[in-house]
Amino acid sequence: DGQAYLVRYADDFVCCFQFKNEAEAFFQSLKLRLKKFNLEIAEDKTKIIPFGRLAEKLGKHQGNGKPETFDFLGFTHYCGKSKQGKFRVKRKSSRKKVQSKLKESKEWLMKNRNNNIHIIMDRFKRSLIGYFNYYCITDNIPSVNIFKVKIENLIFKWLNRRSQRKSFDWEKYRLFLSKFPLPSPRVKVNIYDLRKEISYIL
Question: pLDDT, tens digit, for every residue of 38-81?
């Protein structure tokens, strides 16, 4: 038998198996088990994929390119390389979650663009701090920076719709952001330092 792990948060979980046949056997057993309680697996959110160092090597050997990715807890997990060129699992903000947050921000701005500037900018300052606290982990800062730029662009667009006349050009907007600065992302959680602390329970 190969190694197997389960990572769970609330009702979301990922199961990791060393061998494909064991993953398939578990999947079938899980469906049968849930059926006894009149429950079903969300098939559209469930899949078996090759993933990890060996999956990357196998993909290259078969000419399939990089292994598939999977989303879990708001992050897309994918196979990457360290700065030293060694394999490691990396994480970036899930595209679905990013789009949802941008849509929420756009809708808020549409409804509240005529509010006091201080209220608008304070809202986005607090919103970004909360977003950064969750998503600013190892390897994800580039994705978070892109998200911040998109938020700045949304604010620019909707503040310019406050009146008939255009409020800002980009130069004036940069001066505005220097007066009402938004927070900048930095790593809040180093995944690899965390692993050192909890390795004794693995």
Answer: 999 888 888 999 998 888 777 777 767 778 899 999 999 999 98
* H or E element that contains 91: strand 87-93
Place of tokens 């190892």: 138
Closest residue by Cα to residue 53 from 73, 95, 81, 75: 81
Give me the count of residues in the chain.
202
Distance CA 159, CA 155 (A): 6
Helix, strand or coil, per DSSP, at residue 145: helix
Lookup: tokens for 35 = 């059926």
Alpha helices in the chain (DSSP H): 20-35, 53-62, 95-112, 117-135, 141-159, 170-179, 191-198
- Tokens for 111, please give them: 């409804």
pLDDT(193) > 80: no
> Could you count the other beta carbons within 10 Å of the beta carbon of residue 75?
21
Here the tokens at position 57 are 């090597």
Residue 39 and residue 33 in contact, taking contact as beta carbons nearer than 8 Å: no
pLDDT digits (tens, 9 = 90+) for 8-26: 998 889 999 999 999 999 9
